[in-house]
């Protein structure tokens, strides 16, 4: 993947990217995805359901 493709993927997954290195990070993104986040337990929605079983999905990527 190229850097542009990775940045686009991260944006679609909801990750925050600062416009400039000196910009401040919004409060809701400061601790994510750290386990000691003060926002723990404030999930907005459950993960989406998939058509494939997780074990089947894992077996497709044995080269990773």
UniProtKB/TrEMBL annotation:
Protein's UniProt name: Selenoprotein F/M domain-containing protein
Stretch list, region Disordered: 19-64
InterPro entries assigned to the protein according to its UniProt record, in alphabetical order: Sep15/SelM_sf, Thioredoxin-like_sf
């Amino acid at each position: 993947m190229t850097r542009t493709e990775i940045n686009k993927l991260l944006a679609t997954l909801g990750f925050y990217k600062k416009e400039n290195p000196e910009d401040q990070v919004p409060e809701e993104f400061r601790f994510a995805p750290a386990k000691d986040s003060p926002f723990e337990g404030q999930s907005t929605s459950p993960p989406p359901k998939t058509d494939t079983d997780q074990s089947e999905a894992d077996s497709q990527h044995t080269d990773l």
